[in-house]
Amino acid sequence: MTDQKNNLATRERILDAAEWLFMENGYEATSMRLITRAAAVNLAAVNYHFGSKEALLCEVFRRRLAWINQERLQLLDRLEQEANGSPLKPSQILEAFFGTLLRVGEDPALGGMTFLRLLGRTLTEPAEFVRSFFATEYAAVIERYKQALFRALPDVPRAEIVWRMHFMLGAMSYAIAGTDVIRVVTGHDVSDMAGEDEQGDEDGRMFARRLAQRLMPFLLGGLRAPLPSFDVPAVRHAHAASSIEDWATGGRTAAIRPPNQSEEMQQ
């Protein structure tokens, strides 16, 4: 029993060290030597538990994504049960999918901002083996949420919903990867520009909360943006315009206008 506990503790220590180093340096720049040094283990221990650096990175993600994806599916199940057969509101679907991930940033036990930044960095620069891994890990969850959006927005072309999902996933990945680009472009930290003091936020909880408060309305706004008109025959233009208004207003006939935050989360 003691050996088993020691093995589990060693395994977790390796995963913690690898998670931080992959986030800080990127996959290619993180050597096995750096990982073994940070985890205070030898190379044989890493090979025993994981076999390779590729397998180690996948396991770093798997231990966090297992909870995230399970939580996403459970939330969707509960929402659909409460809806009693009616389609969900788009805001409910986005909150369950993206909100679940953002809440990880506030909980160091689930990986906190270290994991979110690693996920964002990896999604924006994925190696081929990482693409295959994510495709497998996300397949069931993405399909469930895609179908929920199809039901929630029956008058919107399914291709457009898939494109919106693609855009939202991209925005999320870029946002959680970090703020280095903003620093390069402006010469200032985000906290300086916003007048926010991040002292005492060593674990990133405050940053994660504010990121969610900024990003979720942005994603919902993107989902509800007018549909593209493209070049359509005149006879179809009136129907396309009607569909765009339905999309942007969530099916209401009121004039298109930017919603306030309380309205957003009700649609």
How would you spell out the order of helices and strands? HHHHHHHHHHHHH
In the CATH hierarchy, the architecture of the largest domain is Orthogonal Bundle
Helix content: over 70%
Number of beta strands: 0
Count, helices: 13
Which topology of the largest domain does CATH recognise? Tetracycline Repressor, domain 2
Q: How would you portray this structure in words?
A:
With 267 residues, the chain is mainly alpha-helical. It has two domains: 51 residues, Arc Repressor Mutant, subunit A (Orthogonal Bundle); 208 residues, Orthogonal Bundle (Tetracycline Repressor, domain 2). Helix content is 72%, strand content 0%. It has 13 helices and no strands. The radius of gyration is 21 Å and the shape is elongated. It starts with a helix and ends with a helix.
Write the layout of secondary structure elements.
Blueprint: H1 2-25, H2 32-39, H3 43-49, H4 53-83, H5 90-104, H6 112-124, H7 128-152, H8 158-177, H9 180-186, H10 190-194, H11 205-223, H12 234-248, H13 261-264
Helix pairs in contact: 1-2, 1-4, 1-6, 4-5, 4-7, 5-6, 5-11, 6-8, 8-11
Short structural description:
The chain is an all-alpha fold.
Keyphrases for this structure?
2 domains; Tetracycline Repressor, domain 2; mainly alpha; elongated; single chain; Arc Repressor Mutant, subunit A; 267 residues
